[in-house]
Amino acid sequence: MAPLRKPPQVLMIRKDQPVAAAPEPEATASPQPPVAASAAPSPVRTPARNDDDLFDLGGMEGLTMADLLGPDSSQQRQSRRSSSAKQAGSADQAVGAPARSVDDFDFDEEAFLAALDEHEPHGTTGEVVRGTVIGLESDGVYVDIGGKAPGFMPKKECGLGVITNLKERFPKGLEVEVLVTREQNADGMVTISARALALRQSWEKVRALEKEGKVVQVKVNGFNRGGVTCDLEGLRGFIPRSQLQEGENHEALVGKTIGAAFLEVNPETRKLVLSEKKAATAALFQNLEVGQLVEGQVVSIKPYGLFVDLGGVSGLLHQSAITGGQLRELREVFGQGDRLKALITELDPGRGRIALNTALLEGQPGELLIDKDKVMDEATDRANRARSVLRQQEQQAG
Is the separation of the CB atoms in 206 and 195 below 8 Å? Predict the structure, then answer.
């Protein structure tokens, strides 16, 4: 006979009710009727459940996603800080602490400005400063330039050329003017240079000489295949062979002093190019002036005027300055090879230009077309009258 079996029990769980343990069968329960061995227990069916049975969705009605996620953490922190500030303010008011302004604090303006001056960098790159020599080393000179640390000038920056005796050249107490080449380091020391300042001043002087069209005297100190080198105001200059009077034997010029004019002055690229031939022309310009009567020969006829050789330099007699009359053709007055007299009305030594005028020598407009020889013969006397006209024109222009 098969043993008695307990029927299966189903535990129903609801969210709003506590879970109860299954009751144990009592010992006095009546015995179950016997079941045949071949009989299978009847299956127990679980009733179907939906989401409303498992979750209390009714309580979530009307809620938004922001309600579900809760407040932003940054807003919480800001809210906490605001609350802390309010609490602190309330505490101060509770004890009666008065509000303080900037004027209530101790402030010494002079001490503040002095502190700024003490920590302000002294000497910027490119600045010219004056100082006093306070010490010498084998590799340079220390100069007091007013900073919290002295300026240091390396030996190679102490001047143009080679300096063999620093102590003799820079005795203590000597006042010097130098150029700041590097701003202060961590120790407050700046690097200075007398050589850089001298080079800057040399370039400025050379540019002024070029602008004035001056002729300078230079000493040739070397040569190469392209020309000769020279020294001018501590700068290295170069004269091409094509700009030398004796270009075929240029090596023989070493050690000689020659006159030279400027072709190119460029401090940025450190190019200083000179010309001996141009110096000869520039020397002639120094003997010329506006209003001067000169004589020359027509060497070239162009559509815009005549070029006249004045003895080493050429002047331009523009077609508008030949006569005051109606000029149909340039050769109507002067031809190739003719000699003439003319007044100088403009000089430009830098570009080597000379402007000439013969119309000012006429007694009446077009006189050169009628009697050229008479005008040329009386040119000297007529030039005096023409100069007064030129001065009046200059005064009106000024």
Answer: no
Neighbouring residues of 80: CB distance < 8 A, sequence distance ≥ 6: none
Q: Domain span at residue 152? A: 128-198
Cα–Cα distances (Å) from 396 to 171, 248, 388, in that order, read 59, 51, 12
- Quote the tokens at residue 37: 């061995």
**pTM beyond 0.85:** no
H-assigned helices in the chain: 51-54, 65-69, 73-95, 109-119, 166-169, 194-212, 276-285, 367-370, 372-377, 379-397
Parallel, antiparallel, or unpaired for β 151-154 and 227-232?
unpaired
Looking up residue 222, the CATH number of its domain turns out to be 2.40.50.140
Structural domain count of the chain: 3
| Residue closest to 206 by CA, chosen among 229, 228, 232 | 232
Residue 312 lies in a domain: yes
- Tell me whether residue 307 is in a domain: yes
Within 10 angstroms of residue 213's Cβ, the number of other Cβ atoms is 19
What are the beta bridge partners of residue 130?
A: 177
Taken in order 78, 83, 84, 90, the sign of the CA dihedral is: positive
Mind listing the pLDDT tens digit for each residue in 267-308? 989 999 999 988 887 778 878 888 899 999 999 999 999 999
Please indicate, yes or no, if residue 203 is contained in any of the structural domains.
Answer: no
Q: Is 62 exposed, middle or buried (0-12, 13-18, 19+ CB in 10 A)?
A: exposed
